[in-house]
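Lab notebook page, bench 4
Experiment: in silico fold of construct C2
Operator: M.H.
Input chain length: 337 residues
Purpose: comparison with the prior construct
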Amino acid sequence: MVNKVILRGVNNHKQMSKILVVGGAGYIGSHVTKVFKDAGHTPVVFDNLSSGLRENLFEDLEFIEGDVLNTEAVKKALVGVDAVAYLAAFKAAGESMENPGKYATNNICGAISLLNAMSDVGVKKIIFSSSATVYGDPEYLPLDEKHPTGPANFYGHTKIEIEELLKWYDKLKGIKYATLRYFNAVGYDPDGVVKGLEQNPANLVPILMEAIMGQRDKVGIFGTDYDTPDGTCIRDYVHVNDLAGAHLKSLNYLEDNNSFTINLGSNSGISVKEMIDKAKEISGVDFKVEEQDRRPGDPARSLADSSLAKELLGWEAKFSDIDTIIKTTLDAYKANS
């Protein structure tokens, strides 16, 4: 059973803020927008709709169609804004290795454009969507924020570059930041309000949904001989609603505290086989599964240590159990069928 989402009580700060959600029509961005809205803030969505969806927009909220690379357009959008949530990055790791220029331009140059606009207008707070890919191959588990960074793909490199930019703009321009290093984002809005599906997803859970919905004839398991209990890779999956809640808590924290960097994960792992079995159980669909060779670079395990997020923000993953992940995602796919 999925718990009803109640996030209004999370924000106990007196001041309501106007927040520019850059990338707010995307998968995670739309959930972040909803959480800000439900807490009484005024989110404004800024998105070029290259991957974001109009169906993820809220009729009662302002939407500005624009590109983060257009600094003047960003400056206009920032007028009267108190803080920024920055979620407008390309994120396909494989594509980033084939087309690094595309990722450097959009992710790194986009961040520079945004930070310059914020500096010019005088907006002093930003919440940045980073990624656990900054750590590269784990040297130890669980991964904490002290783990060395060394991304194995160019996408992860762009995240590290942006993190470094944030440190400099904090030091030189007084722009405080919250860097949120997401682990594997999954799930959908338990209220069923946000349900626009990701475009061309390459992650396990959406692939399982496509098999359930009859959109693909089989699901591949890349390696069944890992040193794990069932032989398949284990990953730390964090529900998108938990990620969104962390943005709200980060906004509150930055009001009276310094910049920070935290991991956002469930602190527990789910194997590929466990996720497949649970998807079959909840959906009642016995789709075909095919064992395949390992993919190069896939570690056996990746687990987060999110204790710093709990210490600083009082944040914990509340929706990231396997049943809620599968149920909310399946509900979104059925709503789109």
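Observations: The radius of gyration is 19 Å. The chain has ten helices and 14 strands.
Next step: discuss at group meeting.
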